[in-house]
Fold this sequence. Notes:
about 200 residues, alpha+beta, globular
Amino acid sequence: MSLDPRDLRIGAAYESARAVARADAIELRRRRRVDLGHLMSVVFESRETLAAAAEEALRSERIDDTERVGEEAGRFGLLLPPAGGLAATLFLEVSDAAEMASALTELEGVAESVQLEIDGSPVLATVFPFSPAAGDAPPVAYLRFELTASQREAWIEGARVLLRVAHPGYSASTELSDEQRAAIAADLLPAAAAERA
């Protein structure tokens, strides 16, 4: 899976649509963001969230060369959810740089302790290596969740979904709201439909 660079707006095309595009992207990410206690948040990524991020990156770097646009599309495309699974970005909610360094040391390995629980069935996150571009504010980690067919069906049908982290330095659990579950379920529908066919 990849992002098609032809679908990304650049230059004047993006500038003319930017106000609406940013408002749409902020709302989309709001529905897909899950606070995990007071110190962490997780944003479940989709083709739309990643395309919006790529367009902003292209704008901020003033990239309009076709080859470099293709490189950025390829870079963000690496973060797309796997077929039938989910991809997410884990953030530490710390604004002070000194506190961030301390928190990262204290919470080393925290990404590996993140998991989903779908109707009581656990799904451990796997950490996906990815290097942000220079100047990007790096998240703690990029995560992938590989779901079974029964977990996908349960999610789509409205099962209870929890997001948890259990690390010696930090522990939290959040139940996804109906709005969050529905927004993220859209990522699972193609695989579920294929399995039913």
